[in-house]
TrEMBL record, chains A, B:
GO terms for molecular function: fumarylacetoacetase activity; metal ion binding. PANTHER family: FUMARYLACETOACETASE (PTHR43069). The lineage of its organism: Eukaryota, Fungi, Dikarya, Ascomycota, Pezizomycotina. Its cofactor is Mg(2+); Ca(2+). Residues 16-121 form the Fumarylacetoacetase N-terminal domain. It catalyses: 4-fumarylacetoacetate + H2O = acetoacetate + fumarate + H(+). The active site is at 136 (proton acceptor). It comes from Cladophialophora psammophila CBS 110553. Substrate binds at residues 131, 243, 352. It is an enzyme of class 3 (hydrolase). GO terms for biological process: homogentisate catabolic process; L-phenylalanine catabolic process; L-tyrosine catabolic process. This is Fumarylacetoacetase.
Length: 425, 425
């Protein structure tokens, strides 16, 4: 499939991707758009012109300032809209002419991405983060000073996707500065308060819920994928000194709730079909409520981490969305097993996507062994300039981008998930 | 202060209380009301008639279906409205005549509470639960089979209010049935899945945030009380078997996120001034960001727990809102120390309000020593009928009500915080 929109082949925003986002631009208030090439297709403009009339959907859901109402319509509607958008954007269809050959409409409906400002795609009601990479768990567990019962990676993480509730109010869209948090941590075993000295990133993948479930009614694992609207890259910034001081027995709190950054574009699962693969093998057999029909339930998407400073980009590490024990469908089935209601716009993260090798680590905590062995990054150009970090410094910009997914992956792009560390005022 | 509204003296809803709630009634859609005696003052009716014109507030905030916009106006506005409402409800003011002597308006503006259905007072963005009773921590810690490092009540709970993010989507208003959750727990050390066999209540007190803070900007402890709109009774239902299986290392998740019940009426802190007292003494000195100017920063409010079955009410235990190490102001200062944004309608709980004596326990986990010694409850009438519970059974109704607060406390009522346990379908 190819599209008539200019420059599409120079970006990952092909007609096979078509991710959703919320953007504004000069003379355009916040609205829903779909990325195509170097442009954004303005769905509000199309909806107002009756373009979707034949689809029998509530077009007002496409005229909103967030994706919540549209996402709640369910996967059947989203598939119909996706197929329709592909048909008007493809080079080889007669329907494509409707937009391509109408210069005035084209100008109104296609906005250069460079001119757009991106916003949070959803009003996020609840945000849940899981802990599904066994490599991350093993690496972090090995860093603890003494092997303590109850602090090692627990056996339970193989029996179910372990998760915790995060802070939805501190989720921000890519580009938002990240203020170094103050907090309480131990200095020479005594409580102290000040700016975190162990600021870290965490490479994650996250799903936005589309259609929710009624309070008290679980979502069966075989139906759970239908409740996913799309996926984003996510940086769950962490203050390791604050986190380690507070985390027993209730889990992460202020060490995490100062900021979580997501990519601007929400990619439908249908765009990722060719990247399906199996999750990390487990030595346990799952209880029936977590058993899926198919085996290729996760995705093989490398996520590169860059540190930008003084206009130089240094490659640090790479995570991969396949490094997990459980699929999003299993996370959803587990999350709702007791009746917990998920709502449109709820966000569900995988946890840090570390793999089994030293270059496949998803945070500095692991890569530097709790700051004891600084990580060296280098530019990808011929100069191979170096940079070294134990923890993040003020002024560092951390960027997540999808890496090389091979011949199948050309069309996958979420936009950059980035944030600049700024000091306390 | 006395009011001209009939029957006020037979309830805790005096003119000194004036809590807010969201109600509907025949021919009245959801709206904001204030409880007075056996009635609800319909603020939407008053706002539409221009009653608040002299107060210079955005009256549309009083015509909403939740309290979010009104609460966000800040304490200055709420004090002004409270004083105004007191003046029109008092028996001894000339302003009182405006409503009292207008039979038609009175009929329109005062709705019998019996005819009203109560709803969630806020659209709750984020819900945070703290862990601030040292007695609860000690009791629960003593129940663990072996004293394990990292699982005992940590020293950190004296240095800061330990908290975790709860699930806002599962918070319900009093009266909503509580479905016994299914979940994963260990049976003979092996993972199993089924309805929880250890269903429990937790007696808590919780604050709703009014005016929020900007992302990145902490709320100083001395200003934190101004960000509280009001307080409710809260039952943080818990499935102990699910909770103990999942809680290491990330804290409570499915063991809690199936349901949390709050009382229908949100009481302003100004109504509780006479009940102020000191928190539980601590052996540690606090860091400056948690140091308050005054000492009486918590409230002495006993909360009685009843089990109702077959129209009989059995008294089980009593908690008290004073059994905590940290005030709401300290919880807010700590919560926002790293820049986490609080928004209007966010909910903050104290954690289980157990005290130092066997009758002052806030959950069955403590009162029955993890189910090993069933708790006996008895009716408060002359018959002294008995009931015994290790854990909650299907059909049990758990009710929290404010106990005897002495001569100062007559005017404090939150309404009943209740829920009936219903089985899995």
């Amino acid at each position: 499939m190819d599209t008539w929109v200019e420059d599409h082949h120079q970006s990952g925003f092909s007609v096979q991707n078509l991710p959703y986002g919320i953007f504004s631009a000069p003379e355009r208030d916040r609205r829903i758009g779909v990325a195509i090439g170097r442009h954004i297709l303005d769905l509000k403009v199309l909806a107002e012109k009756g373009t979707f009339a034949a689809l029998d959907i509530d077009k007002t859901t496409l005229e909103e300032q967030t994706l919540n109402r549209y996402a709640a319509l369910g996967q059947g509607v989203h598939r119909k809209v996706r197929a329709f958008l592909q048909s008007i954007l493809r080079a080889d269809t007669s329907l494509g002419r409707f937009l391509r050959d109408d210069a005035a409409l084209k100008k109104e409906a296609l906005v250069p991405r460079q001119k757009a400002e991106m916003h949070l795609p959803f009003d996020i009601g609840d945000y849940t983060d899981f802990f599904t990479s066994p490599y991350h768990a093993q690496n972090v567990g090995a860093l603890r000073p003494r092997p303590l019962p109850g602090t090692q990676p627990p056996e339970s993480m193989y029996n179910m996707p372990l998760g915790y509730h995060g802070r939805s109010s501190s989720v921000v869209v890519s580009g938002t500065p990240v203020r170094r948090p103050r907090g309480q941590f131990l200095v020479n075993e005594a409580p102290a308060f000040g700016p975190s000295q162990k600021l870290d990133f965490e490479v994650e993948f996250a799903a936005f819920i589309g259609k929710g479930n009624e309070h008290g009614i679980a979502i069966p694992v075989v139906e759970a994928e239908e409740h996913i609207f799309g996926v984003v890259l996510m940086n769950d910034w962490s203050a390791r000194d604050i986190q380690s001081t507070e985390a027993t027995p209730l889990g992460p709190f202020n060490g995490k709730n100062f900021c979580t950054t997501i990519s601007p574009w929400v990619v439908p699962l249908d765009a990722l079909e060719l990247l399906r693969t199996k999750p990390v093998p487990s030595h346990t057999s799952l209880l029936p409520y977590l058993q899926e029909a198919r085996k290729d339930t996760v995705y093989d998407i490398p996520i590169d981490v860059f540190l930008e400073l003084d206009s130089q980009e240094y490659h640090l590490v790479q995570g991969n969305t396949k490094n997990i024990l459980f699929s999003f469908a299993q996370m959803i089935a587990h999350h709702t097993a007791g009746g917990c209601p998920l709502k449109s716009g709820d966000l569900i993260g995988t946890g840090t996507l570390s793999g089994s090798t030293p270059s496949e680590l998803g945070c500095l905590l692991e890569a530097t062994r709790n700051g004891s062995q600084p990580l060296e990054g280098s530019t990808l150009d011929v100069h191979k300039r170096k940079i070294s970090r134990a923890w993040l410094e003020d002024g560092d910009v951390i960027k997540f981008r999808v890496g090389n997914t091979g011949s199948n992956g050309r069309h996958v792009d979420f936009g950059c998930c980035e944030g600049k560390v700024v000091p306390q005022p």
